[in-house]
Design a protein that fits this description.
single chain; mainly alpha; two-stranded antiparallel ribbon; 21 helices; 1% strand; NADH_UbQ_OxRdtase; ubiquinone; transmembrane helix; NADH dehydrogenase activity; NADH dehydrogenase (ubiquinone) activity
């Protein structure tokens, strides 16, 4: 509760150095939230708030990514753009709403914060986006997510009327058994599948990523996609969807979507679009791990959400650093960066390796756990897994080779070297991906009982 009240105080505080204060508070809160990773099996209750292993990992990720959002926007918003006070307020409010969503045990408030998180994100896209198409991207995002969330509200009201409670802990420990058929699955999980997003309902995500500023892309890839994953794992756990006999359809769409988005990534020419479509493929594997109902699939999915949040956010930061210097995101215009800024090309290589799930990053552990759960679900999925691994390595190597190798364009600035804040930003993304490999179980412990 101390963190919640501190964040409320920072929302209403006025100071000349408010940007820096909010940045340092986010960094300090992320270190403080490490203690929640060692909570007991049954978690911590405080009125409507509840923290267990699943929410603790995502709370830690939210604080860390929000601090890095302010650091990434320091040059583009605070010095060159307008509305720096409003920008930091919107980013801070978005983090506050997301943290409350991850800690909420009341179903109505759970739904409320799930929906309200769209408003600050829409403000970021419309207020600080790059191109006029940001209006269309914001409309796509709102229509997709709001339309899919209205059945969820209806399902929450119906279930609470049957059980006379809105508390998720009451559903989990009560003997009241729901007959969860196809209609229930669509009503309760469709909103989260759109938010992740699942393939075939993912069209809003690349548009939102391309038109959003760097902070919008970071929060979308790093945290907002995890709202859907958290909602799925919480509802599967609380409402016992174990008896659903048609989950093979969802599994098939996710796996096929992973292959298709990997093929789309190979043919992309826009750096942001390539990273956005790779997010769809990774989140498809997360859905497959959750639907498989194996413990290693759940733990691998949570670890994938954490590692993908850092890796994808770091790739968007690297793409934004190129865009700020060249004013283009086209792969055809960014060749030869190895000759211009060789130290940054090392970070490009490390993040591309992390995104394809290679050692020594925790992405490797998460993908191995997800592949094991998918193979145990059906041995026939091994063919799709092999294709996804090959295509994932292919488009990440294409991204690195095209951007870094080749001849430099004549319009490159000779003074292309990065400053210290850029290296700090990239290192802070990379550091958790490397450090948590020494104790992966610290992040991925999920107890199902």
């Amino acid at each position: 509760m101390g963190i919640i009240f501190s964040m409320i105080l920072l929302v209403f505080m006025g100071s000349k150095h408010l940007w820096e204060m909010r940045f340092w508070c986010m960094m300090v809160f992320s270190f403080v939230s490490l203690k929640y990773l060692s909570v007991d099996i049954w978690g911590i209750y405080f009125y409507y708030l509840y923290i267990d292993m699943v929410s603790a990992v995502l709370i830690l990720l939210s604080f860390w990514i929000t601090g890095l959002m302010l650091l990434a926007s320091y040059y583009s918003v605070k010095f060159n753009g307008g509305g720096k006070t409003l920008f930091s307020l919107v980013v801070f409010l978005l983090c506050f709403i997301i943290i409350l969503f991850f800690m909420m045990d009341n179903l109505l408030l759970f739904y409320l914060f799930f929906e309200v998180s769209l408003l600050p994100t829409l403000m970021l896209i419309l207020g600080w986006g790059y191109q006029p198409e940001r209006l269309q991207a914001g409309m796509y995002m709102m229509l997709y997510t709001v339309f899919a969330s209205l059945p969820l509200l209806l399902g929450i009201l119906l279930i609470s009327e049957m059980n006379y409670s809105y508390m998720m802990s009451m559903f989990k420990y009560s003997s009241f058994i729901f007959d969860m058929n196809l209609l229930w699955l669509l009503v309760m999980l469709f909103a989260f599948l759109v938010k992740l997003p699942m393939y075939s309902i993912h069209l809003w995500l690349p548009k939102a990523h391309v038109e959003a500023p760097i902070a919008g892309s970071m929060i979308l890839a790093g945290v907002l996609l995890k709202l859907g994953g958290y909602g799925i794992i919480r509802f599967l756990y609380v409402f016992s969807f174990e008896n659903v006999c048609f989950d093979g359809l969802v599994m098939l769409i996710c796996m096929w979507g992973g292959v298709m988005t990997a093929m789309i990534c190979v043919g992309q020419s826009d750096i942001k679009s390539l990273i956005a479509y790779s997010s769809v493929g990774h989140m498809g594997m997360v859905i497959g791990g959750f639907i498989s109902k194996f413990t290693c699939g759940w733990e691998g999915g949570i670890l994938m959400m954490f590692s993908h949040g850092l890796c994808s956010s770091g790739l968007f930061c690297l793409g934004n650093l190129v865009y700020e210097k060249l004013n283009t995101r086209s792969l055809f215009m960014c060749g030869g960066m190895l000759n211009v800024n060789s130290s940054m090309s090392l970070f490009w290589f490390l993040f591309c390796v992390s995104n394809m799930g290679a050692p020594p990053f925790i992405n490797l552990v998460s993908e191995i756990m997800l592949f094991i759960s998918l193979y145990m679900y059906s041995w026939g999925l091994i063919v799709i897994i092999l294709i996804m691994v090959f295509m994932g390595g292919l488009y990440n190597l294409i991204l690195y080779v095209v951007v870094q190798n080749g001849s430099s364009m004549s319009f490159y600035n000779a003074m292309f070297g990065g400053n210290s804040s850029e290296y700090l930003l990239v290192l802070l993304h990379l550091f958790p991906l490397l450090m948590f490999i020494f104790n992966v179980g610290y992040l991925s412990k999920v107890f199902m009982f």
